[in-house]
Amino acid sequence: METYVKICVTFFVILSSVITPSKGQSNTTGLEQVQILAGWQNSDGTYTAAVEIDLDSGWKTYWHAPGMAGIPPQFSFEGSKNLKKVMFSWPAPVLFGDDHIWSIGYKSHLILPMRVIPEDRERPVQLRLNAEIGICDKVCVPAEFSLSSSLHPKRTKRTAKIVAALASKPKSKTSVNAQNVTCAFLPSSNGMKVSVRMSLPATGDREVIMVGYDQIGHWVQNEIAERSGNELTGEGIIRRDSGQLAAIDRSKITLTVISNTMAADLGTCVE
Questions:
Q1: Beta carbons of 34 and 110 less than 8 angstroms apart
Q2: C-alpha angle 261-63-18 in degrees, rounded to nearest 5
Q3: pLDDT score recorded for residue 238
Q4: pTM of the model
Q5: Mean pLDDT in the chain?
Q6: What is the spatial distance between Cα 18 and Cα 34, in angstroms, rounded to a whole number?
Q7: Of 25, 65, 223, 235, which has fewest CB within 10 angstroms of its CB?
Q8: String of b and e for 92-112 (b: at least 16 CB within 10 Å)?
Q9: pLDDT 10s digits, 212-236
């Protein structure tokens, strides 16, 4: 990991693509085009929209938990109007790299759906997105861009590209025949180790069990999984930014198996 980080830092160039319309070309190496797909309004008053990211051939960007060598994406909606909350629905990612240097993400193209909750469902949402994402080929570049779009009430026609992205979510636990999923917890001075074991037919050449803990001020260090026949084992260490880790809420832990060909959502450690 240290080797990769040093390489990335050596080649990092801050290239800013400030694009104010809902769609625009980028001047950042590797980033071809970004846009907001305005989508539609749902019957409950919320909106379904998406961010579409087109990369040059061979380039990749990252999942919300980018893995050992990835760059976590950052999104801000500061400056938006009539906006209460935004929630992303991440499509199934894949695993890149090898046992020593690996990351999780998407190659060439990403449509990232989002559920937009307005303060007043009868008025349009003026959406402003400021983002910084990592994109990589032989070098890694943090790409910054700004987009804006209006989401209008009564627009109910669904956008085919967003519908397809919503359908490409990680597979279910039952569909991949994952069984006997167990978690063991071992507190230590530098965090909480979560060891995961399951019965699961092979899903690809390399696999990782991503232990997630979506709580402010915490992060998880995950390792490539090990396989023996149909038995898959992996571990993650939940750490806290401020140092000493207090008690964790096990119901907030998520488990996702990701390989170079697929991803599967296994739920939590308390099921």
A1: no
A2: 130
A3: 93
A4: 0.86
A5: 88
A6: 10
A7: 25
A8: bbbbbbeeeebbbbbeeebbb
A9: 998 888 889 999 999 999 999 999 9
CA gap 254, 213 in Å, rounded: 6
Cα(54)–Cα(65) distance, integer angstroms: 20
The per-residue pLDDT for range 55-68, each reduced to its tens digit, is: 999 999 999 999 98
Beta bridge partners of residue 18, listed in sequence order: 146
The pairing of strands 140-151 and 125-136 is: antiparallel
pLDDT in tens, 240-251: 887 777 678 888
Length of the chain: 271
What span, in angstroms and rounded, lies between the C-alpha atoms of 126 and 80? 5
Residue 107: closest CA among 64, 58, 142: 58
Lookup: tokens for 218: 């915490």
CA atoms within 13 A on the CB side of 133: 29
Residue 103, strand partner residues: 96
Question: Which domains occur in the chain, in start order?
Answer: 2-167 (2.60.40), 179-265 (2.60.40)
Residue with token string 């990612």: 93
CB atoms within 10 A of CB 40: 18
Q: Is 214 left (phi over 0), alpha (psi -120 to 50) or beta?
A: beta
Q: Which two tokens stand for residue 195?
A: 């060891």
Asked if 232 contacts 225 with a C-beta cutoff of 8 angstroms, the reply is yes
Span between the terminal Cα atoms of the chain, in Å: 33
Do the Cβ atoms of 91 and 165 come closer than 8 Å? yes
Tokens of 81: 């109007």
